[in-house]
Amino acid sequence: MAPIVITEGDAVVSEIYIERGILTRAGSLMPPNPERRRVVVLTQPTVTGPVEQVERSLSDAGNQVTVITLPDGDAAKSLSVVESVVRDLNDLTLGRADTIFGIGGGAATDLAGFVAATYLRGIECVLAPTTLLGAVDASVGGKTGVNVGGKNLVGAFRHPARILIDVDVLEALPTVLIRQGAAEALKTGFIGDPILVDLYRDKGLAAPLGEVVERAVGVKARVVSGDFRESGARAVLNYGHTVGHGVEIAAGISHGEAVAIGMVAAGVVGERTVGFAGRADHDALIASLGLPISAPGVDGRTVEDLMALDKKRDAGGIRFVVLRDVGDPLVVHPDDATVRAALAAIGID
């Protein structure tokens, strides 16, 4: 299929290919670059099969390939890991014409994107997300980052040149990872694709992943193309994240689970500020996918402190993305009473 593209003005800055078996053809799908000498693959210890496919294909295409294995999960997203990787790149004498290839979950692609954005002030990056959450969110849109005290507080905006999403790899994921990724996919439906919302309502987690990814990525690509650096419209992609990031850190749960809880809180804010009438159906759909809709026992002060530290703040205070209706998002600055009501609704006092 033709790639989904992200543009800046009239220029295509990122191409996203969604196909079955695409990782076996990674070498032929690299961006044209006759000066490329080496590709460094940054990955995680749990992604051996896809990495072997990519390494073989890149080597067959004439590239010198080096694989660097990162710590698993969010342990990869630290400045100490960045320094370790950069020292390895120095030892390899990686040049500006070379390429970083990030393959794995969202933590791996976030770290790979950040290294590529900053090493030698920026070199080419290609990403291959191997989780649904990574495919529909983390890898797409050029927001890279590592965690320092809060979620993704150190980062850079830089698009990967290409993203390769293998539907076969996604369909082989365990249900728990498909469920976590469904939270981010459903988020894109809530803010920009009612058909995707209906798909999850009708089929639940059995919704065909090829269509889910294509629709979710399509929403994100349209939003990012209109506002790369989040000066305005791109903020709607943070639906569920204002509370979600705080809950993720405070409760130590997965990003997808935290976003699900955060969307429930955002539904309350939307109901109280702009009259969102669909909150009951919205919450019921989230729960029907087996995602959590509350976080009882999490310390409210900790979540509030993390929200205050989060990037989603401006001169007007904490920003919440809310829905007037499915597919009709906007950004509000709720008062303290509304924020407390939202936290209470998810079991946080």
Instruction: Give the full name of the CATH homologous superfamily of the largest domain.
Output: Dehydroquinate synthase-like - alpha domain
Strand order of the largest sheet: 1-2-9-6-5-3-4
Taking all Cα atoms into account, the compactness measure Rg is 20 Å
Main beta-sheet strand count, sense and barrel state = 7 strands, mixed
CATH architecture of the largest domain: Up-down Bundle
CATH topology of the largest domain: Dehydroquinate synthase-like, alpha domain
Derived from helix and strand composition plus strand pairing, the structural class reads alpha/beta
Shape: globular
Q: First CA to last CA: what distance? A: 49 Å
Which ranges are low-confidence, i.e. pLDDT below 50, for 5 or more consecutive residues? none
Question: How many domain units?
Answer: 2
- SSE pattern: EEEHEHEHEHEEEHHHHHHHHEEEEH
In terms of DSSP E residues, the strand content is: 15-25%
Average pLDDT, to the nearest integer?
94
Please tally the helical runs, counting DSSP H or I stretches of 4 or more residues: 13
**How many strand elements?**
13
CATH class of the largest domain: Mainly Alpha
Q: Determine the fraction of residues in helical runs and give it as a percent range.
A: 40-55%
Keywords:
7-stranded mixed β-sheet, two-stranded antiparallel ribbon, 13 helices, globular, 349 residues, 2 domains, Dehydroquinate synthase-like, alpha domain, alpha/beta, Rossmann fold
